[in-house]
Amino acid sequence: MTSLLPRSTSAGTSSPAFGTSDSGHRRPLLLLATLGGAAAASSVLVVCLALGVVGWFLTDAGAHGTPRDGLRVGALGWLLAHGSGVTVAGVAITAVPLGLTVMCAWAVWRIGHRVGDSVSGHGPDADGIADGERDWTVPSAVALFAAGYVAVAVGTLALAGSAATAPSGARVVWWSLLMCVLVGGPAIAIGSGRAAIWAAQLPPSVRAAGSGCLRILLAYLLISGLTFLTALVIDLDAAATVMSQLHTDAGDATLFAFLSATAVPNAVAFSGSYLLGPGFAVGAHTLVSPTVVVLGPLPLFPLLAALPANAAPAAWTGLLLVLPPVTAAVAVAHAQRRLPTLRWDEGALRGCAGGVVAGVLFGLIASISGGAVGPGRMRFVGPDSFEVLVHALTAFGIGGLVGGLAMTWWQRRAARRTPEAV
């Protein structure tokens, strides 16, 4: 029966069957999962350490400080990606560079998938799982994976942290655990083949709603990213002017460009909050939204060139508010093509449920995209997470509902015409 298991094409290999005697898929779970978590953390950490040393050398050709200082800066950047926050010259920086966080999540996913594939031979086979036999392979692997990841995070915190920088150890541990559970857990489950069995046992409506949710979120992040890039390209001259005002040489400009790139996912989340209506703040008592733009003095940061002018927005910007529900409707309709239904109530439930969950997920992304980036008024940068959540739930929920009903109508119409064609 194990030959009937669904196959996974991720990472270019197929997932093996459970309960197999193949030694390549029954490697020591305790050792492999723990080392996998440590490797996932260390892979991006080493990159950050190397970039810290390179940045130290590029800034003044190593005239000041030592390579150890560059290593410490790289380690603090890695900790920042895990929500640690840091204090610089007495100023608290709490914003998370989501570009580095995405890199960490990608490493967790890739290595987690390999860990799942390597331990897939442990536990009961597919028949046993289908019959309700307990299988602790994935939970055990995830717990050990998280333990290895957290061990590296705590070690980095102990070596790089200081009273002057004051990174938060509790936040680092919490973020590390969440990343291992929310990203590493699914990766291990997919790599081990368990996810295919679990998904097959779910009702079709649940799978359809999950597919719609994923498509809504990915499509909306793409639309938000394109909106941000369009605004940045339009004002590219302003970004170049910012770089010239910093009086940077080639090395400094390269380093500054990389640091700016780590904030691009944050800018995408800001753009998504803008399209939903609530907008975001760039300093205390400021607001950037399709209907209101109020800005104060801004720091010299190239990505801020994408901000609209500090004036009354054009009338057409209000039309941007239709993008979120339209995106949700199209995404749900596309998802329902693969899992059709002829029932009005099921089509409506699939679309609305997928939209609501996607709204919650985007609200969470928006909530971690902002924070303090400097002293004074720059302690308040980012969207209002509650307002974004409410608008996302409404826009995606209504859009998903409309998309689900529209595709249900189309599929019912096609079903009525099929007998006539035959």
Overview of this protein structure:
The protein is mainly α. It folds into two domains: 18-201, no CATH class; 209-421, no CATH class. It is built from 14 helices and six strands. The strands form three sheets. A two-stranded antiparallel ribbon has the order 1-2. A two-stranded antiparallel ribbon has the order 3-6. Helix 2 crosses helix 5 (137-160).
Low-confidence stretches at least 5 residues in length (pLDDT < 50)? 1-17
Largest pleated sheet? 2 strands, antiparallel
**End-to-end gap:** 38 Å
- The proportion of strand residues reads under 5%
The helix/strand class is mainly alpha
Number of helices: 14
* Count of domain modules: 2
Strand order of the largest sheet: 1-2
Radius of gyration: 24 Å
Order of helices and strands: HHEEHHHHHHHHHEEEHHEH
